C-alpha cells in the first residue's frame, strides 16, 4: 500500500527527487523533513513536491533540516494526504523522537470516502514503515494510551470547543475584558482546548497552519492576526493546581516547538513574575487557606510576596493579580476538598463587569456521551426513576457483586487494551506509604494497596495492580475504570438516599474542619461523580455497603460472573451424523484418508445447528496462512465427501500421495480448485488442474497439475464452513 523513501535535503540533492515518479508526476504525497542530530522535524503534504521542497530550503529553520522521507501510495488523494499529515503530526509529537516545527492544524476532523474502511489501515502501514526506517519508535497502540498523545496541542477541536476558542480570541482583543471563564463538565475537553489555545497564541506567523475548511477557521485566522499585531510575543503560563497532572502536561509540552515544560507552573510560581496571559486548567482545584496541611507555609509565603491578605484571599486572586488576562477552565462539580476555593469566589468572578463566561456542553471522553454523565449525576443524587436502568451499546457499564471479579475484569481489560485502573473513595488509611509490604484495602479475600506514587501514577508500570484515588486520577483519561465505593458512603433504605459516614473518610485534609454533614456529602458525591467519568470505554462498579450495592443493582446492569473468559459452554450430547461429525487429525495421519475413515476410535465434534449433517461429513483443523482470506490459521473446518462433478471455484481438501504441503505440514492440503479441459474426437479430457491459495499473503504459489502428476492428488472433501 505504501512506500517510504529517504533522500538528502539540500539544494544540491533536490534533483534526486525527480527520480521519484510520485514527486515528478504531481501525485499527492506526505513528507517528513528531519534532522537526526538536533532532533527536529517538520511534516507536510503536497501535490507539487519539487516546488514545496525548494520553498522549505529558503525557510530559516527548515533549511537546517537534513533529510526528507517521501511517503507515497497509489491510494492517496488530497483528502487522504491531509488526513495522514494530520495523524502523523499528532502521533510523531507524542512519539517524542523529534521536536516538531509544525503549527496548529485544521480545527476539525473532516470525513471523506473510505476513510474508515481503507485509510485507517493505510495510515497504520505508513506508521509501521516509518518505524522500519527509524523515523519513529513507538507503536500506535502504545501512543493511543499515552497522556502525551491525549494532551497534544495538535488535536482537532469539536464544534463546541471551536466556539469556545472564538469566544476567547474575541475577548483577548476586547480591552474591557480581563477574565474569561470556560465552564464544562468532566470530559468536555477543557484541557485539550487550553493546550490548543496555548500553542496557537505562541505560534509564529509562519508556523500557523489553519486550513480554510470552514468560516470558523477563517475567522480564527483573522482574530489571531489581530492578536499577534497587538501582542506579538505574549508572556504566558499554564497553571495546573494538581502536582500529578502538572507533571503529565509538562511532558506533553517537552517536544513541541515553541513550548517548554517550564511554561506549565504551579499557582505559587505566579509570584515570580507578571504575565500577559495566564490559563488555569482544572481551576476548581485552586485553593484557599483551609485544610492545607504542609502547604500552609507555602501559601502564606506567596500571599506575603504578592501583598495579599492570607486569610481572605485564594489562589484565584493570585491569578487575577499576576495577569493582564486570565482564562479559567472550570467545573464546579469537580471541587472535591474544603481547601478548594469557594464556589462563591467563582460566582463573584463570573459576575464581574470585566468577566465573560462561556460553556462547553458536548461530552466526548466517555463513549456513552452526555446521557451517561447525566445518569451518573442523577444516580448519586437520588434522582433516578425506580425502574430506570442505564444501558449503552457502545459502553460497558456494570455493577459487581464480588470485588474479586471486578479486579479480575480490570486486569483482563489492562491485558486487552491497556490503561485500565482501579479507583476508590478515600475510605482506608494509607498504611503502605510507610510500610510497602502492608495492604491498605482488604475486602474478603482481596488485598490491595493504594497508589505507590502521587506523581503521574496512571502511567506508572504495574499501576493496574494498585488502587488510585481522586488525587491521582482527576484530569486523566482511562480506557476502563473500576470504581470501589468505600465504607464512607452508604445507602439508607429508610430515607432511600445516599448517606456519608465521616468516621470512615480518611482524607485528612478532605474532611477536617467540616461541621455541616451536607457539605462533606457534596464533596464526596463530587469525588465519585468525577472518578466515574474517567473511563472512555467502560466503568465497573463495586460497593462495600450491601444496601448501596443493591441500590446500584437496580439501575446498573449486573455483571454476570460466567461471561467472557470464564464462560463455560453448554454440554451437548453428541450424536454421530445427527449433530456431530468425526474429527480427523490430518497432521498425524500416516496412512491414506480411507484408513482414517475406517478407524474405530474416532473423536466427534459438534457442528453448527443450521447445518444439515449427512453421513460421510468430517472435520479437521486447517493449519497455515495459504487460505487466510476465508480460513484463519488453526481453524476447525467442516467438509462433506467429494461428490465429483464440477469443483471449479470451490475450496477442497486434497490428499497428496507423494508429497508434503509445506504450509499444511502433512500429506493434505486445502486449496481452491480450478480445472481446464480440452475436447478431441474422444470427448472431454483434463488438460491441467490448478490448486490455488486464497491468502492475503501474495507469496503463496498456485500448484499446477498436469496429466502426469494429477494422479498423485485426490480430492477427498469439499469445504462447507468454519466451525466456530
UniProtKB/TrEMBL annotation:
Matching PROSITE patterns: GIY_YIG
Record-annotated GIY-YIG domain positions: 26-100
Transmembrane segments: none
InterPro entries documented for this protein: GIY-YIG_endonuc (IPR000305), LexA/Signal_pep-like_sf (IPR036286), P-loop_NTPase (IPR027417), SLFN_3-like_DNA/RNA_helicase (IPR018647)
Name by which UniProt lists this protein: GIY-YIG catalytic domain protein
Protein source organism: Marinobacter litoralis
The organism's taxonomic lineage, starting at the top: Bacteria, Pseudomonadati, Pseudomonadota, Gammaproteobacteria, Pseudomonadales
Amino acid at each position: 500500500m505504501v512506500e517510504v523513501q529517504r533522500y538528502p535535503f539540500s539544494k544540491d540533492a533536490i534533483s534526486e527527487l525527480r527520480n521519484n515518479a510520485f514527486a515528478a508526476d504531481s501525485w499527492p504525497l506526505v513528507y517528513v523533513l528531519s534532522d537526526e542530530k538536533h532532533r527536529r522535524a517538520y511534516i507536510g503534504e503536497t501535490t507539487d513536491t519539487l516546488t514545496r521542497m525548494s520553498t522549505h530550503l529558503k525557510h530559516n529553520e527548515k533549511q537546517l533540516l537534513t533529510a526528507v522521507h517521501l511517503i507515497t501510495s497509489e491510494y492517496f488523494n488530497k483528502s487522504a494526504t491531509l488526513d495522514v499529515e494530520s495523524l502523523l503530526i499528532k502521533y510523531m509529537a507524542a512519539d517524542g523522537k523529534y521536536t516538531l516545527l509544525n503549527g496548529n492544524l485544521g480545527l476539525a476532523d473532516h470525513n471523506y470516502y473510505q476513510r474508515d474502511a481503507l485509510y485507517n489501515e493505510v495510515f497504520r502501514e505508513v506508521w509501521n514503515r516509518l518505524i522500519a526506517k527509524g523515523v519513529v519508535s513507538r507503536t500506535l497502540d502504545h501512543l493511543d494510551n499515552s497522556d502525551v498523545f491525549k494532551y497534544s496541542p495538535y488535536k482537532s477541536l469539536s464544534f463546541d470547543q471551536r466556539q469556545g476558542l472564538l469566544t476567547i480570541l474575541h475577548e483577548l482583543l476586547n480591552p474591557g475584558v480581563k477574565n474569561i471563564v470556560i465552564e464544562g463538565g468532566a470530559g468536555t475537553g477543557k484541557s485539550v482546548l487550553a493546550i490548543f489555545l496555548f500553542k496557537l497564541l505562541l505560534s509564529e506567523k509562519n508556523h500557523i497552519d489553519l486550513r480554510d475548511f470552514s468560516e470558523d477557521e477563517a475567522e480564527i485566522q483573522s482574530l489571531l492576526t489581530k492578536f499577534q499585531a497587538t501582542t506579538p510575543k505574549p508572556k504566558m503560563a499554564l497553571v495546573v493546581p494538581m502536582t500529578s497532572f502538572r507533571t503529565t502536561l509538562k511532558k506533553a509540552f517537552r517536544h513541541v516547538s515553541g513550548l517548554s515544560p517550564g511554561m506549565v507552573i504551579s499557582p505559587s510560581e505566579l509570584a515570580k513574575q507578571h504575565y500577559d496571559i495566564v490559563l488555569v486548567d482544572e481551576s476548581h482545584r485552586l485553593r484557599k487557606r483551609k485544610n492545607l496541611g504542609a502547604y500552609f507555609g507555602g501559601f502564606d509565603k506567596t500571599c506575603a510576596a504578592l501583598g495579599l491578605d492570607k486569610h481572605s484571599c485564594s489562589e484565584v486572586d493570585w491569578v487575577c493579580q499576576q495577569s493582564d488576562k486570565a482564562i479559567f477552565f472550570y467545573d464546579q462539580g469537580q471541587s472535591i476538598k474544603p481547601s478548594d476555593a469557594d464556589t462563591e469566589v467563582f460566582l463573584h468572578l463570573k459576575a464581574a463587569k470585566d468577566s465573560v463566561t462561556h460553556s462547553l456542553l458536548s461530552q466526548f471522553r466517555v463513549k456513552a456521551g452526555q446521557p451517561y454523565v447525566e445518569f451518573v449525576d442523577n444516580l448519586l443524587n437520588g434522582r433516578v426513576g425506580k425502574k430506570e436502568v442505564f444501558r449503552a451499546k457502545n459502553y460497558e457499564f456494570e455493577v459487581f457483586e464480588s470485588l474479586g471479579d471486578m479486579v479480575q475484569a480490570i486486569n483482563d481489560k489492562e491485558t486487552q487494551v491497556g490503561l485500565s485502573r482501579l479507583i476508590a473513595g478515600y475510605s482506608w488509611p494509607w498504611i503502605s506509604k510507610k510500610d510497602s509490604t502492608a495492604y491498605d484495602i482488604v475486602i474478603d479475600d482481596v488485598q490491595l494497596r493504594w497508589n505507590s506514587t502521587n506523581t503521574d501514577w496512571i502511567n506508572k508500570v504495574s499501576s493496574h495492580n494498585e488502587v488510585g484515588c481522586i488525587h491521582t486520577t482527576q484530569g486523566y483519561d482511562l480506557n476502563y475504570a473500576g470504581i470501589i465505593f468505600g465504607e464512607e458512603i452508604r445507602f439508607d433504605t429508610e430515607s432511600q438516599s445516599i448517606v456519608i459516614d465521616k468516621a470512615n473518610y480518611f482524607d485528612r485534609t478532605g474532611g477536617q474542619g467540616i461541621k455541616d454533614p451536607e457539605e462533606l456529602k457534596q464533596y464526596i458525591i463530587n469525588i465519585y461523580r468525577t472518578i466515574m467519568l474517567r473511563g472512555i470505554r467502560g466503568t465497573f462498579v463495586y460497593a462495600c455497603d450491601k444496601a448501596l450495592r443493591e441500590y446500584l443493582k437496580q439501575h446498573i446492569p449486573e455483571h454476570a460472573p460466567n461471561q467472557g473468559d470464564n464462560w463455560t459452554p453448554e454440554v451437548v450430547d453428541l450424536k454421530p451424523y445427527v449433530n456431530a461429525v468425526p474429527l480427523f487429525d490430518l497432521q498425524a495421519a500416516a496412512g491414506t484418508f480411507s484408513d482414517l475413515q475406517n478407524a474405530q476410535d474416532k473423536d466427534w465434534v459438534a457442528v453448527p445447528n443450521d447445518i444439515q449433517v449427512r453421513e460421510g461429513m468430517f472435520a479437521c483443523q486447517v493449519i497455515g496462512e495459504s487460505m487466510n482470506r476465508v480460513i484463519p490459521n488453526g481453524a476447525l473446518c467442516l467438509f462433506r465427501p467429494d461428490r465429483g462433478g464440477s469443483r471449479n471455484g470451490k475450496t477442497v481438501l486434497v490428499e497428496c500421495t507423494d508429497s508434503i504441503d509445506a504450509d499444511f505440514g502433512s500429506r493434505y492440503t486445502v486449496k481452491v480448485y480450478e480445472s481446464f479441459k480440452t475436447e478431441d474426437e474422444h470427448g472431454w479430457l483434463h488438460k491441467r488442474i490448478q490448486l490455488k491459495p486464497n491468502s492475503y499473503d501474495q507469496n503463496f504459489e498456485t500448484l499446477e497439475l498436469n496429466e502426469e502428476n494429477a494422479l498423485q492428488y485426490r480430492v477427498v472433501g469439499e469445504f462447507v464452513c468454519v466451525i466456530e
